[in-house]
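To: structure subgroup
Subject: Chain for Friday's discussion

All,

I'm putting the inputs and outputs inline so they're searchable in the archive.
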Amino acid sequence: MTRLAGGLAAILLLGAADAASASPDQVKIDSGQLAGVISGDVVSFKGVPFAKPPVGDLRWRPPQAPDPWTGVRAADKYGALCMQKINTKDNGVGPPPASEDCLTLNVWRPLHAGKTPLPVMVWIHGGGLVNGSGTAALYDGSALARHGVVVVTINYRLGRFGFFAHPALTAENPKGPLGNYGLQDQIAALQWVQRNIAAFGGDPKEVTAFGESAGGVSVNHLMLAPAARGLFIRAIVESGAGREFSAPLHGKGPGGIPSAEDQGKAFATKLGVTGDDVAALRAIPADAIVAAGDPDMSKGELIVLDGVTQTMEVTDGFKQGLEMKIPYIVGSNSLELPVPPSMIDTFFGGAGRMSAADKAKLAESYGGVDAFNDNVLSDIVFTEPAHYLAGLHAAHGAPTWLYRFSVLSPTAPKMLKGAPHASEREYVFDTLNASPWPTVDADKPLAAGMNAYWADFAKHGDPNGDHRPRWPAYSARTDELLDFTNKGPVAEKTPRAEVLKALAARYP
């Protein structure tokens, strides 16, 4: 081969390499090159590590930067679930297997996005902080991406892998952060977005954090977390409670609950580790930790007030105006917890406990015992906290929108009298094929509309757009919300507002 021919071949090869790197299904991030999958008008990248596997000596430590790789890594399959009791019938869980090596995320972007950076939506899944994943088909980001946003779904450590304290861990890392490893994973994923999302066409300055149930709880906490400041500029909380309580790292908590360290010691003793040997703690088999049972958020057994990642409860932070003053959507479903009246007492604790006289008086406010029995648990856990936080956030001058989700497909179980917990997710993502029950044609425009409100909020900091019914901004003076109904979205006064105020008045 002549020198000229060799030079020409080198130029052609270099051009081919540049073309490959510019391909819409290939990106280069700080840890290496990825090859995604084109499906119609959307490109996806799945199973992307955003931290080192938290195994061995990294169990119960803050997440570490991922190891780089050489060559092109295929990003065509979801990563493993984080360790949990897998319920394959739960549409928010995703496909097995589960592993401690689970800190991956998934990205969807429009195939033809143009040169202008796109807003980003980072989804934090629910599941009581003990189950679920960002890999469920329910959370496929394609429909949102078609609105011109980049969608990211994440895994984070769950149960006692993600929320655990022990004196031995404190001695090892006395300045913290401690306990909230799952929240730290969420923050690490948001930091990964800041470093890398531009490679996918996303704008790191235009990030919306959104989540449902425990994911919504997480978003509220992240709005108060010092380490999360500046990582997102908009927030959506779907059925994210707000009145839940946390254990302090040391000392007794609300109602005399044990400290997070004492809870951890008791759990370790149950599994045969009675001393302060960190190596022995980390040597406990992962399956044994899962089999020993899940911690319970309603008992203050998960999120820890460690003084670093979390310094205060959500309601305390919002009352003091310490949350990020960012555009905020918050709401709940019309009948989150359709439980029989006999179960209601088991859910009350601390400030939530009511005497027979209190119940009788409140039942009058509901208009009768039947309405009280049907709604009071949902209102205490979800509806009232969302209403309360919306009022506080709006009073601080931050743009706020309150919603109620009342859609109930005619194919839903007949026992349901309203939209149950988590049933809005397939409408938000427009993934009706992942609904727990069949849907009908009438559900399609309802999902498309809710999906569009969420995308416009991520794009503009305001959910209104196109020709959809206008969603009024929330203020305590007007007390209006948008009700997503079977007939479409309807702006109205908050239902049972006086009842919600009566419930709020029972807290300090």
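Points worth raising on Friday:
Confidence is low (pLDDT under 50) at residues 1-21.
The domain at 24-504 is CATH 3.40.50.1820 (Rossmann fold).

D.
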